[in-house]
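User: Modeling request: complex.
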Amino acid sequence: MSVKPTVLKLGGSVITDKGKKLTPNLPAIERLTKEISRANVSSLVLVHGGGSFGHPVAEQYSLAEGYKDSSQIMGFSMTHQAMTKLNKLIVESLINHNIPAVEVQPSSCVVTKAGRIQIIEDRPLRKMLEMGFVPVLYGDTVFDSETGFDILSGDQLVSSLAINLNAHRIVVGVDVNGLYTGDPKTDSAARLIRHVTLEELKKLEHRIEGSKVTDVTGGMLGKIFELKPAVEQGIQTIIVNATESNRVYKALKGEEVVGTIIER
Amino acid sequence: MSVKPTVLKLGGSVITDKGKKLTPNLPAIERLTKEISRANVSSLVLVHGGGSFGHPVAEQYSLAEGYKDSSQIMGFSMTHQAMTKLNKLIVESLINHNIPAVEVQPSSCVVTKAGRIQIIEDRPLRKMLEMGFVPVLYGDTVFDSETGFDILSGDQLVSSLAINLNAHRIVVGVDVNGLYTGDPKTDSAARLIRHVTLEELKKLEHRIEGSKVTDVTGGMLGKIFELKPAVEQGIQTIIVNATESNRVYKALKGEEVVGTIIER
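Assistant: Request completed. Predicted assembly structure:
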């Protein structure tokens, strides 16, 4: 591929109303679409999360635990269908802003093995990028060669795609400013980490493991865990608050922005 | 695969109002969903056409001629998006009738070469069938290794899938009773052919070539042309009128029904 693509992740908590089942955050989708359009990145892959579209049904049917009995089958269909519905809103918004977006359905081209990507058919995707399209993927229900099916997180997908496509940069848009020393939602002393290396992350993880708290950073370390393989390959990764105007825009342009840069 | 699947094609002229752009035929979709549900085929793959969803935009942007200039790029995105919209209506109707339908997006897992299927990643699809899901595919805009992109017809897809999956039977639902000796819409002397072999088809094609008319059978020979490779492999193929109640049901059950059976 001539131009190295940028991989942009938009978290489910940004593009949906997490409190209300199957409710998109349309103003946020519209604003982010405009930021993507203005940034005009020459080669872009978009991956989005599920938020209130993916999680409620997936949890109700325990899809993440794999296939246990036939009562989950309809739950799989419904979860996948809900995700394609959310994707449609995003792709339509992009098309309305003249961005040649094309849905790429992970369940159609990925097979996992015990939850980790085993097969990813990326030839259609490479062809899309080569021609100037913007592929739009998402965290999805996928088939698993060991457990029957599974939930593939958008974060695992981002990392895998970034490595496969030899990405230039990963931009992760979430609903907090980046990685904090504690949970910014509950701990007022928590400080935003502007720059972190994999070595420093390891120390942070040890400290957190020691504290016996699931994740004092408010879930951000789990997200970063999935992104680490891409960072290890030398792909610069930046986490920004996508609920704040222009942060995603600036990150896509490579401009100085409030957030956490993770580097090798 | 333990159970040989049945591949059902539903033509675009059956499930959409061909005269009105982007207009589904919801009563037909509902009725056919019920027929599929009642037939309760143990392993089923569904492929549908585009009708008034796929064709108008695809033609406007000359997508079937391959990539010529960047003005077609948005047309590709819009055509694909329209097809996923139609698919969503069908999958939703199936889910509402308790059929575990899952959209499988050809553009995500197929690459053509000069219009013919070159790569088809069917491992997710095989896994779906193994687990009892009903994959739902469609004629789609796809990427092409020679021409950039192309339109993959539902009929080419049906034939290719039937061969790959070693199908038991192909049922093709169209808006006429089957293959006629002439065009039933304009020629009152046209007679329905109830049974035809590949050898007899060849003679029919020669006769038609001789007559210098594009396709006196009202387009049905072109459709059969795509299905022939599957018939050659010994897969029984039956064409029925899906606008008439119970024809698709009977064909799925293997019961006696008005239509054209094509056999090796």
